[in-house]
Amino acid sequence: MIEIHDLVVQFGGVKPIDGLTVQLTRPIVGLIGPNGAGKTTLLNVFSGFVEPRRGWVKVRGELITGIPAHKPPIWVCAAPSRPIRSPKI
Fold this sequence. Notes:
This protein has one helix and four strands; from the N terminus they run ββαββ. It is mainly β and 89 residues long.
């Protein structure tokens, strides 16, 4: 289970996540939404690359907010946020 409570992430005057509260009880296989919706920012909070201004995230009851990016929980993995393109031959 993933619990997110009152999560706020702000970069200057931009708040890609503003007061997100949700409880997810089933596995997540993807996030969809328009550009600027906060999808990558949320994943960066999970992995420790971004620290929220307010709120917390728990996974299976374990508080993961504030865990440094160099010591992520075993279940966290990072993926490129942009597609890797190869030149056509």
